[in-house]
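### Sample
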Amino acid sequence: MSDSATSATPATFPDSFLWGAATSAYQIEGAVREDGRTPSIWDTFSHTPGKTAGGDTGDIAVDHYHRYREDVALMAELGLTAYRFSVSWSRVQPTGRGPAVQRGLDFYRRLVDELLEHGIKPAVTLYHWDLPQELEDAGGWPERDTAHRFADYAQLVGEALGDRVEQWITLNEPWCSAFLGYASGVHAPGRTDQQASLRAAHHLNLAHGLGAAALRSVMPARNAVAISLNSSALRPLSPDSAADLAAVRRIDDLANGIFHGPILHGAYPETLLEATSAITDWSFLQDGDLDLIHQPLDALGLNYYTPTVVSAADPGADVPRADGHGTSDHSPWPGADDVAFHQLPGERTEMGWPVDPTGLYELIMRYTREAPGLPLYITENGAAYDDKPDADGRVHDPERIAYLHGHLTEVRRAIADGADVRGYYLWSLMDNFEWSYGYEKRFGAVYVDYASLERTPKSSALWYGRAARSGALPEPERI
C-alpha cells in the first residue's frame, strides 16, 4: 500500500514504515440516529437483552462523530503517521441499497481532510461487521445478493473518497462475520446455523472480490486494495501426535484456508470441502465465483492477538472450548466437533488470551511464503488490560507497553528475515465499545472516561509515539 520499504536494521524499522492505530465505526462513532443513519445488525444485537455485557450499546460509544477533530489532533500529537478507520455502511447507504446519503459521506470527507491536514495517511476499511439491518432482514451474508449490495456500496465510497485515500481494505476479519455471527451467535446478528455460516463465508469472499473490482473501477490506479484477515497462528497440543496435527489441519482450513484459499489462490482447500460435506453440498459456490474472488491484491492485512492451540478429541466428549471467541453453546467451527482448544500457560491479557509474540512472527513468515511478493501490514495487534487512572489522573499500563514491545520486536525480526511488512496499526487508538464485552475491556492506548468522554493518553501511547518518531523501540521500562 506504499512504495517499497527500505531495509530495516536489527535495531530499527524502515524509514517508510507506517506507525498507525485502528478503530471501527460502531465501536467509536456514536450518533447512531444522526444524519440519516439507520440501524445496523450491531444496533439491533446490542439492544437485545442479554447479548452484551451490562446491556451496553454503541449509541454514544466515545462520540467520535462529534469529537473527530480532537481525536485527529491527539493522533498527530502522539506522532502517528497512519490511521485505519471503518465506514458505517448504514450511515452512507441506510437501506443497504440505492444512492448514498451525502450527509453520511460528508462526515468521512471531513475526517479524511482532517487527517491529511495533520500529515496522517488514512486507511479506509469498508466493512467492520456493521451490516445494515435491512440487508440482514433480507437474509444477510448467507444470501448471495448481499455480496452485490456490498459492491455497490464500495463503489459509492470509492467515488467519494478515492481521490484522497490511497489505502483501502474491503473487509475486516470475515471469519468473525461468518462464524461468530452465524454459527456461534456471540456476534451480531446472533444466528446459530452452521450451514448459514459457510454460505456467509463464501459470500463474504465474493463481496471482497466484487468490492475490489468496484473500487478499482472508480479510483485512481495508484490506490491500493487489501483485505484484513484474522488468520490463526496454529499449533498442535502435542507436536508428535498425528491426531493433533490432523486437528491443526482441520482448523487451519476453517480459520485460514477458507479465506486465503480463494482470495490468494483461487480455490477452496479440498480438505475443507470434504470436512464440511455433511453440513453443506457447497451448491452456493457458482461457476465463475472463484475467478471473481481471486482479484489481484495490492497488500494483505494481518490481525493477530494470540496463538491457537488445538488437539484431537473424541466425538461427543466434553471438548474444551477455550478458543477465545466468547461463550456459546454453539461452536464457531463447523464440522470440527472432534477438535479441542487449549490455552497456553503463562501471562494473559484481560481477555484471557495468552501473550505470545512469536505467533505474530510465525504468521508473517507464513504469508511471506503463502503470497511471495505481496506487501503485508499488521492491521490489528494489541491487548486489553484493566487500566485505571492514578491519583494524578495519569494512566500507567506497563503490561501493554511490554505487549507492544514484544510484538513489534517480532515484526522487526520478520522484516530482517525478508518479510515485506510495511506498517503496523495498534488496536486500538482509544478505549471503546468492545462488542459483546460492552465497555468492560479496554484495548485503547488512550484512556476514555466513559462518563465525561475525556481522553487521556496512557503511558503506552507515549511509548508508541516515541517509537513512531524514532523508528526504533524504546525499552519498556523507560516510560
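Residues 194-218 form the longest helix (25 residues). This sample (Beta-glucosidase) is used throughout the tutorial notebook.
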